[in-house]
Amino acid sequence: MLEKKMSLLGKKKQRIGELFVEQGLINTNQLKDALKKQAQVGGHLGSILVEMGFVDTDTMLSFLSKQVGIPSLNLSKIDISPEVIKIMPIDKIKAMKVLPVTFDENSITLAMVNPKDMIAIRDIEFSLGKKVNPVVVLASQMEAVLKKLVEHPENGISGSNIEKDSHKIEIRKAPSLINLLKYLSNSPATDLMLTAGVPPSIKFGNDIRRASMNALTPDDCIRYAKELLKDKKWELFQEKGDFDTAITFPEIGRFRVNLYKQRNSISITLRYIKDILPSIEELNIPEWIKEYILMPQGLILISGPAGHGKTTTLNTIVDIINSTRKCNIITFEEPIEYLHKHKKSNVNQREIGTDTLSFIEGMKHVYRQDPDVIVIGDLRDAESFNVTLQAADTGHLVIASLHASNSVTTLERIVNMFPPHQQLFIRTRLADNLVFIFAQKLIPLKTGEGRILAYEAIINSIGIKNFIREGKTHQIRSQKTTIGTEDFIPLEISLANLYKSDLITFEDGLLYAENKQFFRDLTKTG
């Protein structure tokens, strides 16, 4: 008896595609192709099998009828008059995905994609005072019917057009790339995400919101990608599978673009880059930073998690130097996002892969270009950091960004890039050249509209130098927080100030705090 029950449970778990393979109606390769398309564009597998020509409509309907124990109906073989449609409000038909087919005094025949939806059936029976006799229909045909009804409810439904219209659903036109970019540039969103299988999505703070439009297809994403990448760039992307660039669209603005392959399709992330860099006040960066960024030499590090505004902070610092000092600034970026105008300084922006083969190759020749300030978009490995330290050693001001969760882990990550036998030498060079580390995180605003910068900083005093040289950087947070100093500003102080100013919630402050009890103590919440 138990074995029989387990057998029945196993059958219940079988999916429609597996059952079709089992019954010899499709083969495993056809099922794989259909499942791949479903993953990319969404929708019901039954409809996809029909649309791909693996199963005909009547066979699919017959199968569905047997599965649910309810009669089926091919909507392409019937006409429904406007009088029948009018028995239910169009909004209700659309919301419930049902369709009146016939009715009399006591009952109504109702086409349904999900004829087991008892909540919908009871609701309709109660509102109409009639018994519902459900029939199962294909999802693609229902979508075609609903689209037709929304456009021209007064015409009723002509079955001869349903098959043709159901295929139109699949070749519907996605919004143009230009319109999407215009929308992003005029909205408070930071990013636009284009992925097959879901509608275009925009990112507000840490949340993704999908547009109320149809899901994109793989072909839509290919079309967008080809608009963004021309000729050699498209060939490089095809070869590498990932591509970063920045593109200016006249009368819209400049965008950072990342393309990558996934599930045999292309996904795209675009970020709008504002023409005017925000001031340090607008970014919530402390005023004291100006004192250090105008120093003639040393190493300044901007760190934080990915997507937390390091590039904007880095470029704002460059703009301050550009507006204040008369010097030669050379940047290495991948890609170039903000385009700097020459103010008091000359700003030479070099894009990795376009203006120079690589960062290392560019740094080999940088000293002949007579730089005063060298700016590095992203430090990723020991070789890059070694040449960065060399530039600081030779009397230049070097400003660089890297990924790290806080200021202390920034130091530890740099040292750990190198093998153990080199780490003492690296700590000594780092202690000698470091000016400060500015580690930042973007915290959701209490209003729900955007994010605000919280920071912590390590300023390289004699005490900090000793911590670095002696390999005791892990003690900076515990010792400096306890005694309170000017050379270490913990993140919790910035978070507490934002909370007290009613800009962020206590919960978000606690979530991002490194030392949660210290944050509670600062906000006096126990």
Helix and strand layout, with pairings?
Blueprint: H1 2-13, H2 16-22, H3 28-41, H4 45-51, H5 57-68, E1 79-80, H6 82-85, H7 90-96, E2 98-103, E3 107-112, H8 118-128, E4 131-136, H9 139-151, E5 157-158, H10 159-170, H11 177-186, E6 191-194, E7 201-204, E8 207-210, H12 218-228, H13 232-240, E9 242-249, E10 253-262, E11 265-273, H14 280-283, H15 289-293, E12 298-304, H16 310-324, E13 328-333, E14 346-351, H17 359-365, E15 373-376, H18 382-393, E16 397-403, H19 407-416, H20 420-433, E17 434-444, E18 451-459, H21 462-469, H22 476-483, E19 488-489, H23 491-500, H24 506-512, H25 516-523
Parallel strand pairs: 3-4, 12-16, 12-17, 13-14, 13-15, 15-16
Antiparallel strand pairs: 1-5, 2-3, 6-7, 6-11, 7-8, 9-10, 10-11, 17-18, 18-19
Structure description:
- With 526 residues, the protein is an alpha/beta fold.
- The protein is built from 25 helices and 19 strands.
- The strands form four sheets. The chain has an eight-stranded mixed β-sheet with strand order 14-13-15-16-12-17-18-19, with helices on both faces. It has a six-stranded antiparallel β-sheet with strand order 8-7-6-11-10-9, with helices on one face.
- A hairpin with a 2-residue loop joins strand 10 and strand 11.
- Helix 20 runs antiparallel to helix 21 (462-469).
- The protein is elongated.
- It starts with a helix and ends with a helix.
- Mean pLDDT is 87; it is low at 1-13 and 167-171.
CATH class membership of the largest domain: Alpha Beta
Percent range for β-strand residues: 15-25%
Rg to the nearest angstrom? Answer: 31 Å
Shape: elongated
Task: Report the total helices.
Answer: 25
CATH-defined fold name of the largest domain: Rossmann fold
Distance between the termini: 59 Å
The assigned structural class equals alpha/beta
CATH superfamily of the largest domain: P-loop containing nucleotide triphosphate hydrolases
How are the strands of the largest sheet arranged? 14-13-15-16-12-17-18-19
Mean residue pLDDT: 87
